[in-house]
């Protein structure tokens, strides 16, 4: 690729600089040879975004997404690295499956890090070959989509993960309180039938149990998609005790509320469910004060045929990669709760650190670092159109909403992986 000069761009901390790109690296602009120019006055350069929680749906016999389309959607959303969750078909639960994932991701539009399952086939009963997967480079283990319900098994997984220098992620949903058909948060209908009720306590009881196990084992615990004020309280307590716990919140839990479930639209069915206004305020403030460490998308594309069903049998999940930064800008930056420096920390530096990415993702934008960045214009806005998406998933909860549309270009180690038509 020709040398590139991005002039007068604003860094997250507000400094205005010229950025030179030569090959894969950021270089001193004085060292460039006849560079192509991008005039970036008024634009911000963020380090490439890192998503610790993506469902790429490959391998699968009937894929709702592929690694190619999912990582192209990631690039459209400003991401340069995604962690691919293990609940594929077959599940990523052995060293050879982890190797197969690495082979499949070679031509992707973003770095793909493979998440390994904690239990065989997500059965919640038998520990997977975590050591074998660790030898293949896996640093993050999770049964996401299901909760590891057996406390003894979770404790053994944590001891193994600690010995392997890995982190375990829990999908906190006590299935005896919120089962397979559950979708309705208690704020919607206190008297709802048991089988469809998804009470807040089904989340925070598991968070509480697992931070105790983390205290016991000293293993690193990552809490997936925190949705309630009570979970936030438990995590805040755990951090005050020095327990090695980290947590994520999704863009949809930052923006959307349970009121949307009054519509008949199963796009809004997700695990954990959309919650009350009080919960939404609590997760926003927890992200702002660092109790919640990162934003992670839980990008969960589904086939239309799996969503076009009655609520209890429709699959849970919504897409997230392309609109994650827009939603964070809208809910956290434009409201004054976070700065762009905070965004860089919570969507790039910290997820890269928690996931222990060994390539140089989530690094500051200075000469000598890889040219892994996203160029944004916070002033651009659009009405979201689910059919104009890069992802194959049409289960887009933001369809029809007016939101920021900040992403102009994404570079992954010097390679242009997305360029908006709006960028001249
Ligand atoms: O709503 C969800 N969908 N939550 C999860 O945890 C898993 C995901 C999926 O895989 O569809
Ligand atoms: Zn989950």
Describe this structure in a few short sentences.
By secondary structure, the protein is α/β, with parallel strands linked by helices.
Spell out the key features of this protein.
424 residues, alpha/beta, five-stranded parallel beta sheet, binds (4S)-2,6-dioxohexahydropyrimidine-4-carboxylic acid, binds zinc ion
What percentage of amino acids are in beta strands? 15-25%
Number of strands: 20
- Uncertain stretches of 5 or more adjacent residues: none
Distance between the amino and carboxyl termini: 18 Å
Bound molecules: (4S)-2,6-dioxohexahydropyrimidine-4-carboxylic acid, zinc ion
Helices and strands: which structural class? alpha/beta
Q: Any idea what the radius of gyration is?
A: 21 Å
Largest sheet: 5 strands, parallel
Walk across the major sheet and give the strand order.
9-10-13-14-15
Q: Please give the count of helices.
A: 11
Indicate the percent of residues in helices: 25-40%
Mean pLDDT: 97
Shape: globular
